[in-house]
Amino acid sequence: MAATIPMQQVDHFGPVAADYAGFRPRYPEGLLQWLAEHAPARRCAWDCATGSGQAAVELARRFEQVIATDISEAQLAAAIKHPSIVYRRAPAEACGLADYSVDLVTVAQALHWLDLGRFYAEVRRVLRPDGLLAVWSYGLLETDDAAINHCLRGDYHAIIQPFWPDERRHVEDGYRSLDFPFPEIRAPTFVLTADWALDDLLGYLRSWSASARYRASHGIDPVAAFGTRLAPLWGRPETRRIIRWPLSLRVGRATRRRSERSTAG
């Protein structure tokens, strides 16, 4: 019998690493600042399943050191470089960090790929007392034009819907159906925004794992044909439009262990 591969050891984004690095939206600065302010200290943050480092580079502006891990060599090769970031190829469930060495753990748009039981055990092992775990996701984008939004939802999404893995449903429900065994903290509402021309939007669509699976299955790029249909609605290709993604955020705090409470008391 073949061995079962842990979920996070499946590299969903290696084939689209360049598009991922170039076209994925940047996370709101207010989100990373809020997390830094609520962490017990700013010594070390672990950005798990970092991809090409969109969250890690913002954390590096606020923490002395950031350890950013991923299983994808292609993603890490395309990651944003920063002197305070150490990139490592490692699964989420066995990151190699020392016990109680991290003030904040972040998982951006990737919790649905992980073996949650093993990952949460790893989080408890590496977080310092009162450290934070923050996970977030974002679903379908909206532009400033209703006709473009209708085309995106009714046309492109219909074409590639069969090529999303089952785990994608957790992104759509904002991770609310996933187990999250940490005392939760109420967080503000954050929104991702971008100012994009048509080629930026099409590059983002190519960064989807479902788009890569469609290409592998059919041998053609679904984004190219969709771009032809979308162009008359967009107007001049260089026209820039505001793109928005509502962001779903869950934040929990590591409870102090009994031995630590008695020692502190």
TrEMBL record:
<dbReference type="GO" id="GO:0032259">
    <property type="term" value="P:methylation"/>
</dbReference>
<dbReference type="Pfam" id="PF08241">
    <property type="entry name" value="Methyltransf_11"/>
</dbReference>
<protein>
    <submittedName>
        <fullName>Methyltransferase domain-containing protein</fullName>
    </submittedName>
</protein>
<comment type="similarity">
    <text>Belongs to the methyltransferase superfamily.</text>
</comment>
<keyword id="KW-0808">Transferase</keyword>
<dbReference type="InterPro" id="IPR051052">
    <property type="entry name" value="Diverse_substrate_MTase"/>
</dbReference>
<keyword id="KW-0489">Methyltransferase</keyword>
<dbReference type="GO" id="GO:0008757">
    <property type="term" value="F:S-adenosylmethionine-dependent methyltransferase activity"/>
</dbReference>
<dbReference type="InterPro" id="IPR029063">
    <property type="entry name" value="SAM-dependent_MTases_sf"/>
</dbReference>
<feature type="domain" description="Methyltransferase type 11">
    <location>
        <begin position="47"/>
        <end position="134"/>
    </location>
</feature>
<dbReference type="InterPro" id="IPR013216">
    <property type="entry name" value="Methyltransf_11"/>
</dbReference>
